[in-house]
Fold:
Amino acid sequence: MSVAKKEYKRVTTKSLVEMKSNGEKISMLTAYDYTMAKIVDSAGIDVILVGDSASNVMAGHETTLPITLDQMIYHASSVIRAVERSLVVVDLPFGSYQSDPKEALRSSIRIMKESGGHAVKLEGGKEIKESIKRILNAGIPVMGHLGLTPQSIYKFGTYTVRAKEEEEAEKLIEDALMLERVGCFAVVLEKVPAKLAKKVAESISIPVIGIGAGGGVDGQVLVTHDMLGMTHEFNPRFLRRYLDLYADMTNAFKQYNDDVKSKDFPNQSEQY
Ligand code: KIV
Structure:
């Protein structure tokens, strides 16, 4: 049974703001390929994030830093071909927007033109304000990302909870207000104390989508491969696993291996 307060044929940036004002929570999951995106979209998930977590999940890198703009465009265009309803947000990868606003705009235009994505997401606050304004001025919707920003992992040194100290919490609130003021349509808040995240969500009119940020925000995002239990070496407290696909897939592959070796597969009805 659907618990949506209003049916949306296509989710837009405006729908998300409307959901927040109607008190309807927003669902967001990652996808990096056509097949997964088709399932996520048809399940009614509001937003699909083509995250730079593809660098970890799809390519096996330790961090999100190595993924390139060309690779993000490849993933995003595969997702776009599958989607009928969800809003598709595409991460600008590390190195494609940090140096100056012109580069940030050029990278965003490439994403919109070459993948057909609906919006871009950038990590950071006031240090990238001019880049965000430049992208927005070109008519490209922007989602912000504050708190734990994995592209800065070598600056932080760890993936632990951010903004536990007052100074960092205050900066985070200022950054969220700035993102709203310049015209972002939503903000991701990653791994921050639930109380702070709730305060941010109550302070701004645009939706706050949390990951490890508690239930007081306007929506939730998880990495699909993690919530399906396909990855099993990553066990943060905030992760709810809905399946144990690592075990189920391993069993299926073992069964197939046995069936081939024992000549059980293919049988009479599985051949021409
Ligand atoms: O890349 C990603 O998957 C993300 C989410 C964790 C929010 O940015």
